[in-house]
Design goal:
By secondary structure, this protein is α/β, with parallel strands linked by helices. It has helices at residues 53-60, 83-93, 109-118, 127-140, 156-168, 186-203, 214-217; strands at residues 9-20, 27-38, 42-46, 68-73, 94-97, 174-178, 206-210, 222-227, 230-232. It is built from seven helices and nine strands. It has a six-stranded mixed sheet with strand order 5-6-7-3-8-9, sandwiched between helices. α4 packs antiparallel against α5. The chain binds adenosine-5'-triphosphate and magnesium ion.
Length: 237
């Protein structure tokens, strides 16, 4: 794997552009995004609907490739890897929490949390250690008593807490959240946000979250607003 010259920064984004080819005309969503985040930092991404928050999160999670520019994650360029290795890198290094939790309905809550450990058997946590950590995380997010339940039997806030536990199972260096509290009421949103920050502090992950909530964004040590495809400090917007 290619190693780039930024060992101290966990996430380094340099002049990233993202274009989508569409039937109508190419859509340029990101036009030169650059920033660095060190271990322990937390970044909120704000901006209107369609400004590119999810697009940028997908690039940071190596789920999609930039059209131009580089993204370095934990000292490596993931896009230099062939696809099977890229999937392994994602699995080990990145936790992703989606707006609607994306839990598998047919699995119990515990099995959902264990899923990341099953993707690359032999290169992940041993089954007993994975189960121990999954149970500890579920207890930590207040769902120890719900581990044998199916996602449909949980509230929206409980499902988001289970999704946070799943994202943290393999101790990712980077935790990415796409509107993690977007579908929750105020109390449940505050509860999930408290949990994100507690785990971010305890596990030392870089945390990046896209949000429409200025209340949530205010809790982050760093904030960027996406304006015309670039990241700007919200006060300068
Ligand atoms: N696969 C795609 N093909 C074409 N255009 C796309 C694609 N994905 C995203 N876009 C466009 O990129 C722009 C940014 O979308 P994105 O989902 O990143 O916005 P967002 O800031 O997350 O919005 P929201 O707050 O509504 O979630 C939109 O105009 C969208 O139509
Ligand atoms: Mg979005």
């Amino acid at each position: 794997m290619a190693t780039l010259p930024n060992p101290s920064g966990l996430l380094a984004v340099r002049d990233v552009h993202k274009r989508f080819a569409t039937a109508a005309a190419p859509v340029e969503v990101l036009c030169g995004v650059s920033f660095e985040l060190a271990a322990g930092e937390a970044l909120a991404l704000t901006g209107p609907s369609g400004s590119g928050k999810s697009t940028l999160l997908h690039l940071l999670g190596a789920l999609d490739r930039p059209s131009e520019g580089t993204i370095e994650i934990a000292g490596s360029d993931p896009f230099a890897l062939p696809e099977p290795e890229l999937a392994g890198f994602r699995n080990r290094t990145i936790g992703f929490v989606f707006q609607d939790s994306h839990l598998l309905p047919q699995l119990t809550v515990l099995d959902n949390v264990l899923l990341p450990s099953l993707a690359f058997p032999g290169r992940s946590l041993a089954p007993a250690a994975a189960r121990e950590r999954a149970e500890a995380l579920l207890a930590r997010v207040g769902l120890g008593h719900r581990r044998a339940h199916r996602p449909a039997e949980l509230s929206g806030g409980e499902r988001q807490r289970a999704a946070v536990a799943r994202a943290l199972l393999l101790r990712p260096a980077v935790l990415l959240c796409d509107e993690p509290t977007g579908s929750l009421d105020r109390a449940a949103a505050a509860n999930v946000a408290d949990l994100l920050f507690e785990l971010h502090a305890a596990e030392g992950t870089v945390l990046v979250a896209a949000t429409h909530s200025l209340e949530l964004a205010a809790r982050f040590s760093r904030r960027f607003e996406l304006v015309e495809g670039r990241c700007v400090e919200p006060s300068a917007a």
